[in-house]
Design brief:
27% of the residues lie in helices and 21% in strands. The protein is built from 13 helices and 18 strands. The protein starts with a strand and ends in an 8-residue tail after the last strand.
């Protein structure tokens, strides 16, 4: 089969690799019909996340048709021919974390938990296509994918719904929604969201769904800012102002937003001395992260407010204003998304016509174009906001 493989820093190639096989009675094999490039895939592309190995298959946003299930799968739950969206987090359904609804913290789905424990103390769940520290699972940017614990994760899709309506239930729609839910929004609250990429766009719309009266979105890319405005947000282009924190104070009567969300993570952009130091340290691999947005969220948030962090971080960061965090009495909520908590309710919102998630798509391409699309998405060329790839389409000759 064809698959998108990481071959080294900023080197993505499409190779023919062996088809996946059933390895465990609770496995399923899915014929992938749509797969996406996620913003967090760009961290892998840049080589910032450790324990990725040459030849690893990338991708954690995918859906398709079940073609085979293991002997341990109840056919009433999942059977060949079912059309499913696969969540990016992998959960067993039986451990304490799963029983507590903390699906992304599953105790049993990361076979390489010992690696994560050295970095994080304890391991989160396994993830598709996201390093050996988080399981070493082959990703879904391929024609077929093996799905472990397939009786727990995949969401069956009703007939008549297009891939484009539901593919983002695999990650970015639930991630944006959980990010907004973690803001502890009360009716009429003001929410500031850094990052107007796909997760940020869903976070904007989710914040309004949850009762926010006002959303202020911060980015620098014109088409992303325009998309944010089309979702009802006010916007700040951080490249056009001296200090985002001061602007937010001015926009909120010197109170600050009720909650602040970092939907950017480890490759945040900005300006100023601390940002330049972040960039230098990251370039020298002295740190994995550029924490400029995280710092701004803490400084901008109102007293007693909430900081939500759906953006991906990988390491140990310094120059964090912990004094401001403590003395202002802030709350922080973060984590990989507890996918199985959100997929069905958000599918129902799509079915009711409350939202059409396909609004974020800018490019639809065959999987063979993955090397060019990774670069385009990273560099924000050609108004690229979200790439959906078809593993079975034939790329046109140049």
């Amino acid at each position: 089969m064809k698959a998108v493989c990481w071959m080294g820093k900023e080197s993505i190639q499409v190779h023919d690799v062996p088809d996946p096989q059933i390895l465990n009675p609770r496995d399923a094999i899915v014929r992938v019909t749509s797969t996406c490039i996620c913003g967090s895939d760009l961290h892998l592309y840049a080589g910032y996340v450790p324990t990725l190995e040459q030849g690893d298959i990338l991708g954690h946003e995918f859906m398709g048709e079940v073609v085979e299930v293991g002997s341990g799968i109840n056919r009433e739950k999942l059977k060949p021919g079912d059309r499913v969206v696969v969540p990016f987090t992998i959960a067993c359904g039986n451990c304490f974390a799963c029983h507590d609804g903390l699906w992304s913290l599953c105790d049993n789905s990361n076979p390489n938990a010992w690696i994560a424990e050295k970095v994080m103390g304890y391991s989160p769940s396994g993830l598709f296509g996201y390093t050996h520290m988080l399981g070493g699972y082959a990703g879904g940017q391929a024609q077929y994918a093996r799905v472990p614990f397939a009786d727990v994760g995949p969401l069956k899709i009703p007939d008549g719904m297009r891939d484009e309506q539901v593919i983002f239930l695999s990650d970015i729609f639930p991630t944006g929604y959980m990010g907004a839910e973690n803001c502890n929004i009360r009716p009429g609250d003001t929410v500031a969201i850094w990052g107007c990429g796909p997760v940020g766009q869903f976070a904007i719309r989710s914040a309004f769904m949850l009762g926010a009266g006002r959303v202020i979105a911060i980015d620098r890319v014109p088409e992303r800012l325009e998309m944010a405005r089309s979702g009802g947000a006010e916007t700040i282009n951080f490249e056009e102002v001296d200090d985002v924190v001061t602007i937010l104070k001015d926009m909120t009567g010197n109170q600050g937003p009720d909650s602040c969300m970092d939907a950017v993570g480890m490759e945040a952009s900005g300006h100023g001395a601390m940002y330049l130091l972040d960039r230098a340290k990251q370039a020298m691999r002295m740190t994995f992260d550029r924490a400029v947005v995280f710092r701004q969220c803490i400084m901008a948030c109102k007293k007693g407010g909430t900081v939500s962090v759906p953006g991906v971080y990988a390491g140990f960061d310094d120059m964090i204003p912990i004094g401001a965090f403590m003395n202002k009495g802030l709350t922080m909520k973060t984590g990989q998304t507890h996918m199985m908590r959100y997929m069905q309710p958000l599918l129902e919102r799509v079915q009711r016509g409350e939202i059409d998630p396909s609004f974020v798509i800018s490019h639809r391409t065959p999987i063979d174009t993955a090397p060019e699309m990774y670069k385009m998405f990273r560099d924000k060329q050609d108004h690229c906001t979200k790439v959906v790839m078809d593993p079975w389409a034939i790329a046109k000759a140049a």
